Predict the 3D structure of the following.
Amino acid sequence: MPGLVGKKVGMTSVFDENGANIPCTVLEVGPCVVTQVKTKESDGYKALQIAFDDKKEKNTSKAMVGHFKKANTTPKRKVVELTGYIREWKVGDVITVDYFQNDLWLDVTAVSKGKGFQGVVTRHGFSGIVGSTHGQHDRERAPGSLGGSSWPSRVFKGMRMAGHKGSDNVKMLNLKVVKIIPENNLLLLKGSIPGAKGSYVIVESPDRT
């Protein structure tokens, strides 16, 4: 699906025409620069490579500096490939948040906040042991039996255990567009979006093919 790259600014709320208070996530979307146009003839598939967020040249590899110079733009921090664009774009073209001016619903892909190593109660919502009975000692938040101890003497695939929580790619579908502020490259979507403030997001239009 076609879309743009942006950055999560934070959350706020706005009032609609009926006076209802709507919680919104504020995204800074674009301007994105087209850095490469991939075609079936040259690359085997059709896609558009776009870049977002300026970066210092001294912190960029020489190969990427040359890549961005071909697009007549400064080095960028985030580069992604997206497919499904109807319009034929050229290298060096700039796509702004106005691209979504006719969209009512958008999909957003983001990386959720990392929570580090967590136990089964936090990670999977285990209830734990309510009260201390049968001589239990310091076992209130333990996972319990894993099963299959004597046979097949291994941990079953998909067993819910303690481990790393968060830092997952999460895609939110059909978020309502509340407001677009083109002069500030801002996009307001109804509801919350995974990720911390300042994290990158990919905003896509589900209505276009």
Observations:
- Helices lie at 40-43, 62-70, 120-124.
- The chain has a mean pLDDT of 91.
- The chain has three helices and twelve strands.
- The two ends are 6 Å apart (CA to CA).
